[in-house]
């Protein structure tokens, strides 16, 4: 760079000398304006030669700049991660002691969601039916017991009243399942097989489904979805992409008599489930 500057200076020296001579003549003859023009031209000439225009970037350099910029940019969070963060403070894990649906003594696990400022918990009735003790584990790590406040057997819905609410009560936001369409995203958060705080994603597969539960009970008006759920998800929320509860997970299709997910799950619409908690059916 220093050698290049010396070369430019040698080439400019004759021109600079002529321009300086013209400037001095103008000053002697009382032409300050003309001398100023010459001086300005002299400055432009010096700058243009000592500071040449930068070379244009090559295609490879442009591509590298784009790659570096994209690598340093922080991507926006996914819908699913936002949904999870919204619903997590409202989630509970339910453990029961007592008789199961077959009348046998044992322990059970399920999910529930806080739905109002009194910390009432909405869940599936079959999760807590026959239980002699219901334990509630909140997302903040605290735990308490609960009792069944109201039950709606025709829709497999129960509302639990906890003995001790969490220190900070964060009710879930209830959505409108009637605004959903087949193919819309659907998320389930719960405790499948006892794995606390698990999330799965899928889509709405159908509406107004009917599912026989026993010889005496048939659930109707259900939301069908392909979001993966397993035992332990029952009673947990089905959510839309805005993190609003649109249903309560109640059952999964079980043609093989085995308790595992085959791609078809069902949820009671929140418009129906909310009625068990004394909320208006909307």
What does this entry look like structurally?
This protein is of the alpha+beta class and 282 residues long. It has three domains: 1-75, no CATH class; 81-162, Thrombin, subunit H; 177-277, Trypsin-like serine proteases (Thrombin, subunit H, Beta Barrel). Helix content is 27%, strand content 33%. The protein is built from six helices and twelve strands. The strands form two sheets. It has a six-stranded antiparallel beta barrel with strand order 1-2-3-6-5-4. Strands 7-8-9-12-11-10 form a six-stranded antiparallel β-barrel. A hairpin with a 5-residue loop joins β10 and β11. α1 (2-28) runs antiparallel to α2. It is elongated. The termini are far apart. The mean pLDDT is 82.
């Amino acid at each position: 760079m220093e050698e290049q500057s010396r070369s430019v200076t040698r080439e400019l020296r004759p021109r600079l000398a002529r321009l300086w001579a013209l400037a001095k003549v103008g000053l002697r003859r009382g032409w300050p304006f003309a001398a100023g023009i010459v001086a300005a031209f002299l400055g432009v000439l010096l700058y243009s030669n000592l500071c040449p225009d930068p070379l244009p970037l090559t295609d490879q350099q442009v591509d590298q700049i784009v790659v570096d910029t994209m690598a340093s940019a922080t991507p926006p969070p996914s819908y699913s991660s936002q949904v999870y963060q919204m619903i997590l403070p409202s989630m509970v894990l339910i453990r029961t002691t007592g008789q199961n649906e077959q009348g046998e003594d044992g322990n059970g696990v399920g999910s529930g969601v806080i739905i109002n400022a009194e910390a009432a918990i909405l869940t599936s009735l079959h999760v807590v039916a026959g239980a002699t003790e219901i334990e509630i584990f909140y997302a903040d790590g605290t735990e308490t017991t609960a009792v069944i406040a109201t039950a709606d057997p025709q829709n497999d819905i129960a509302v639990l009243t906890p003995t001790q609410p969490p220190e900070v009560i964060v009710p879930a936001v209830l959505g409108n399942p009637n605004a959903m369409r087949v193919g819309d995203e659907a998320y389930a958060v719960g405790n499948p097989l006892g794995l606390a705080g698990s999330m799965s994603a899928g889509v709405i597969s159908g509406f107004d489904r009917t599912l026989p539960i026993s010889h005496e009970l048939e659930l109707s008006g259900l939301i069908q979805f392909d979001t993966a759920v397993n035992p332990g998800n029952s009673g947990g929320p089905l959510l839309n992409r805005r993190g609003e509860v649109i249903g309560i997970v109640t059952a999964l299709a079980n043609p093989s008599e085995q308790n595992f997910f085959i791609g078809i799950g069902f949820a009671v619409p929140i418009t129906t489930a909310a009625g068990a908690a004394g909320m208006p059916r909307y």
